[in-house]
Known about the structure:
Blueprint: H1 3-54, H2 63-74, H3 80-110, H4 115-131, H5 137-150, H6 152-159, H7 167-190, H8 195-214, H9 223-234, H10 240-247, H11 249-269, H12 278-303, H13 305-313, H14 320-337, H15 342-349
Amino acid sequence: MTVSDFDMAAQQRLEQARTSVSTRKAAVAAAAGRRGPLVAVLVIGVGLIAAPFIFQMMAGENRAPAGGEMIDQFRPYMTEARITKFDGFVDLINRAEQSYKADLRPVVAAAPKNPGQQAALTSVDAWTQKWEGGGGIFADMGGILRDVRANLDNYKAVDNLPPFWMFPFFFIVPGLIIALLARAALSGMRRGAGSGARKALVVMGVGLVAAPFIFQMMGGENRAFQGAAMIDDFKPIMTTERVTSMQGYFPVIGLAEGQIRRELVPLAKAQPNSPSTPMIDEFSQTWPEIGSELAQFLGVMSDNLDNFAKVKALPPFSLFPFFFILPGLLVVGLALASRPSGRRATRSSR
Length: 350
């Protein structure tokens, strides 16, 4: 071999070494470029796992179970039949109050009275003043029942969602699977494998996107948006001040009913022009049932003030579908971005 041949061979070996180094650098750069999206997917998985703790859905405030408890306790009252019955109760009280003013009071006001009867008349007159008017008891109770009736369909939509205690696991379980698959894909990439994990990530991402539609949180029944509307409508009602105020109505009404029944009706019947008062009689007969059922309803409201506050502190229901859709789209896009390109595959085969 001549010196010239030796130099040429050495130059070829040097060129091959340079090409090999360039190829390895390109492969390393390409692998790093594919690892980045998978690292991002791993972060998304961890974020989904953390979401229920960030939003205090479980442990600490336990907001998700509190929501489920509230929905369960309201169920017997959130029906058309029950609200119609309550409307009938309030209407009966109102008609009895009107009959008192139109039929009973003129007679007893003109009749001779003992101190107890006079005190009863004064007390019942005070009740009628509290009952009437735009800010009176009748308007307030009627308004609350109208708000509840307006949300019966919204309540049913929320009640048809999966149980509230499961909500945290709709984040934790997919997040854990996505994180494990991303970790497996990263490990497989070092061995020149990992395509199976990437495909599984695409499937998981599609599943997250589909979940709100499967549970009808949006599209069709729009249960999440109906839940948000119900929470907004109940905010003025489900406060300590409002519930306490409503609970205070019943002693006032009960006291007036007792004084009418025990003092004023017997006084009126003793007069020559004794009036017929069927509405007042029906009110007195029905009052024990009215007081009991409406008091139970208000008791449920009072017992769930803390639960409602916890649900209200959650992100708006209307955002929940996007907590699945957006991570799902990101997982699909990043998993696809982590695949080796055809050009890279061809180059590496050489």
